[in-house]
Design a protein that fits this description.
It is built from six helices and 13 strands. The protein is α+β, with helices and mostly antiparallel strands and 260 residues long. Helix 2 packs antiparallel against helix 3.
């Protein structure tokens, strides 16, 4: 059977012709100026919409606490696995060492989404570095729909994260000189527990003073010289299909039908 005939049959049967666009590239750019904040390699997930990593106004899970305080994505990944949600996860890594994605840098991840009709939604989480417990993430499990109900790719998608989109996990008191991770001379295990709730960054009491106190601090990759104000672009996520996935509509079409 010719590929053209296969595509016609799919159209007549009402089957999603683009459900095969499952090999995706996730790119993350740090849009901060030189001397600005970095962020840890983002943990990302494509899932069925049932995994909600956190909610504004509620206590952070152990997974979000580990990301926000220590840039440790392991516990969040374990929570995802234990939730029973369908999906796949990965880490967007820095192209250079050390791991944090520094200002002007772009990290990438190529990831295979196993079922585009099920794993339609995108989530992410990453620590804002340096800080006690600030992080990037989305609190709406279905906020970013990558594939529609028929499995068709909705992108390319661009997600722009501004400073007002950042979060305080409410798990550690904001004191840059005590317990903040990635500050030279600090012990990140000695922070003071806050026992609060996840809160939008600029709704946190005293946040302007806290952010100002971070300027001039020395980190393993250099001294932070640029503070963070409202309206600043922090990160840009882009989600695009791999050319090989799109090619399944051509020479790979028959293989797709057999697998499905």
């Amino acid at each position: 059977m010719k590929i053209r005939s296969v595509c016609v049959m799919l159209a007549l049967l009402g089957m999603p012709m683009f459900a095969s666009a499952e090999m995706l590239t996730v790119s993350v750019t740090n849009n901060q100026p030189d001397g600005g904040f970095t962020f840890s390699p983002p943990w990302v997930a494509f899932h069925d919409g049932t995994f909600d990593a956190f909610n504004s106004g509620s206590a952070a899970s152990a997974g979000i606490k580990a990301i926000a305080e220590l840039a440790d994505a392991g516990p969040l990944g374990a929570e995802f696995t234990g939730s029973g949600a369908s999906g796949v996860t990965g880490m967007v890594t820095s192209p250079t060492a050390p791991p944090p994605i520094i200002p002007g840098e772009m990290g990438t991840l190529m990831i295979d989404v196993p079922s585009t009709m099920t794993n339609r939604y995108f989530s992410f989480a990453s620590m804002l570095v340096p800080s006690n417990d600030l992080f990037l993430g989305n609190d709406d499990a279905m906020g970013y729909e990558v594939f529609d109900a028929a499995g068709n790719f909705n992108g390319p998608l661009t997600i722009m994260v501004y400073s007002q989109d950042l979060w305080d996990s409410g798990t550690e008191v904001n004191d840059i000189g005590f317990g903040a991770a990635f500050i030279v001379g600090n012990d990140p295990m000695q922070g003071t527990p806050e026992n609060g709730v996840v809160t939008p960054l600029f709704e946190v009491s005293g946040i302007d003073t806290y952010l100002a106190s971070i300027v001039g601090q020395e980190t393993p990759i250099g001294t932070l010289t640029d503070g963070l104000g409202t309206g600043e672009l922090v990160a840009t996520f882009t989600i695009t299909p791999e050319p090989a996935s799109l090619a399944l509509l051509g020479i790979g079409g028959l293989a797709l039908i057999r697998r499905r």
